[in-house]
Each structure stands twice: as structure tokens, then as C-alpha cells.
Design a protein that fits this description.
With about 300 residues, the protein is mostly helical. It has 14 helices and no strands.
């Protein structure tokens, strides 16, 4: 995308969000507190982040107690957070890495040194690009606009970044288009719009606001996934019912034919059984009669010889 068109999107975005959102102003917390707060603020509304941060301060004695708490237990404290597990993991990772590196939670010395070295140190602690940009802007006095996944998706829909830039998670030219004096104001308000769009991408109010910023954003709006598969599932269901009816008719006609064949086979086998039994009976009868007739002749001969 051309730099001029990209800058126009940023300028229009800043102009329109001022009508609908307000800025929270500079963050006066310490560097460590800004790290923890921004880890919660990433991809979440500002009011929700403030509530979750206040819960940590009220429920735990100090940051070391938060550090040794498990991620699931911390996530329970972030009940209203859109992604409580991810926020709890970021907080625990930062506190753990800081403690292992310097054995303390005092990071105020980073304000006095070189800004580049301070940014490098914060990166080593496992800070995400959003956390790093937030602390650079509020704690180190630099001009860096925090970028999270919600803001990336918003700028892609508005046409400020391309597909490749979305994959690389970069928004080129944003710091040049927005002056440093307006950096905190722009970041706060655009962040709220991005989170609202993330949580309600099909809201008519949000979409109308995006179209006011970029009239061609409609072509990049996310599509409803549930509508298309519902219609697609109905046609296969009808086809399946029709095929089942056809196969049922075929199976019934095929099964009827063997029953006729079974009847014919039983009638054919019945005739040989009668002839087989009848013929042996006659043969046995003739044999028995001939054997019994022979002894009668011998008995007559014996009676004739007695008078002599």
C-alpha cells in the first residue's frame, strides 16, 4: 500500500475515533507497574484491565507473591478479561524473568539511562511488542504506539496493512503519520475501537464506524461462518435420505427372490426320499422269506427216516 494512502487511513481513524472514544491519559505508574498493567491491557478493554490490575493489588501482598502464584490461579482473578489465561501467563512470565535477572522489582533506573538499552532490557524480560510499546510510550518518553493482535486486525480491515504485514505483525508508518504529542491519545482511543471490533465483529454500530473511516472496508469484513455450512448440510441430508430409500427398495426386491427358490428346492428333494425308503423295504422282505423256507424241508426228511 502507498505511504500516502496509509497515512490517510491513520489520520481519518484518529479524527473519527475522537467522536466516539476518550483517552485515559498518561500512565503515572512505575516501570514495573506499567509492565504488569500493559500485559493485562493487551487485547482487552481499558476498564477491564484496570479492574484486573486492582484485583492483583488487593488480593496479593506484593509482586513476589504474584510471581509464585500459578497461571490458573491468576487467571481466576481476571474473570472479566477476554483472554484471562494469556494475560495471566504474560504477567507471571515478566515477573519471573525480572526477578531471575536482577533479584528485585525496581526498574526505575531504566528511565535515567539510554532509551535503546532500556528497550533491550525490557525485551529480555519477555515483554511482547504491545507491552514494549506501552512502556516506551508512557515510561521511557519515547514515541511508540503499542500494537497487539486486535489493532493488527483492525488496520487490516481498514486497508492500512497488507496480508504479509499482518503475518509479520507490523504496521509501518503509523508513528510517522501520528505526531508524538498525539501518540497517547491516538493509542488509547484506537485501542478501544480495535478491542470492540475484536469482541463484536458483526456489530452494525462498529461496522458503520469502520466504513466511515474507510469506505472500502466492507470487502474485508469477516464473514459469518455458521450461515454457509448450515445451507450446505441440508442438501447432503436430502441426498442421503433419497439414497437410503432407493437402497431399501433394492434390498427388499433382492430378498424376495431367494424365498421362491427355497420353495422349489424343497419340493424337488421330497420325491427322492420316498423312493429311497420304499425299495430297500421290498428287498429285505424277500430275503427274509427265502431264508425261513429252507428249514421246513429238512424237518420233513427227518420224519421219514424214523420208521426204518
Amino acid at each position: 500500500m502507498a505511504a500516502a494512502n496509509r497515512a490517510n487511513v491513520f489520520t481519518a481513524c484518529h479524527k473519527i475515533v475522537k467522536k466516539h472514544y476518550a483517552t485515559a491519559g498518561p500512565d503515572k505508574r512505575s516501570i514495573l507497574e506499567q509492565l504488569v498493567f500493559s500485559a493485562i491491557l493487551e487485547n482487552a478493554p481499558h476498564a477491564v484491565a484496570e479492574q484486573c490490575y486492582g484485583t492483583l493489588q488487593n488480593e496479593y501482598f506484593d509482586w513476589n507473591e504474584v510471581r509464585v502464584t500459578s497461571v490458573p490461579e491468576l487467571a481466576e482473578m481476571f474473570a472479566k478479561h477476554p483472554n484471562a489465561d494469556a494475560a495471566a501467563s504474560r504477567v507471571k512470565t515478566l515477573l519471573q524473568n525480572i526477578f531471575e535477572a536482577i533479584y528485585t522489582y525496581d526498574l526505575e533506573a531504566l528511565k535515567k539511562g539510554n532509551q535503546g538499552k532500556a528497550v533491550a532490557s525490557i525485551e529480555k524480560y519477555g515483554a511482547t511488542p504491545f507491552v514494549l510499546g506501552y512502556v516506551t510510550q508512557h515510561g521511557l518518553g519515547g514515541h511508540s504506539i503499542p500494537v497487539d493482535r486486535a489493532l493488527l486486525n483492525l488496520m487490516f480491515v481498514l486497508g492500512a496493512i497488507s496480508d504479509k504485514e499482518l503475518e509479520k505483525q507490523t504496521i509501518p508508518g503509523m508513528e510517522r503519520a501520528i505526531p508524538k504529542t498525539k501518540g497517547i491519545e491516538f493509542s488509547d482511543m484506537v485501542h478501544e475501537l480495535a478491542v470492540d471490533f475484536q469482541n463484536a465483529p458483526f456489530s452494525k454500530k462498529i461496522r458503520d464506524l469502520l466504513l466511515e473511516i474507510s469506505p472500502d472496508a466492507k470487502s474485508r469484513f469477516p464473514k459469518r461462518v455458521s450461515e454457509e455450512p448450515a445451507a450446505a448440510k441440508e442438501e447432503p441430508a436430502k441426498q442421503d435420505s433419497a439414497t437410503k430409500k432407493k437402497t431399501a427398495k433394492k434390498t427388499t426386491t433382492k430378498k424376495a427372490a431367494p424365498t421362491k427358490a427355497a420353495k422349489t428346492t424343497t419340493t424337488k428333494k421330497a420325491a427322492p426320499k420316498k423312493t429311497a425308503k420304499a425299495e430297500p423295504a421290498k428287498k429285505k422282505a424277500t430275503k427274509t422269506t427265502t431264508k425261513k423256507a429252507a428249514p421246513k424241508k429238512t424237518s420233513t426228511r427227518i420224519t421219514k427216516k424214523k420208521p426204518k
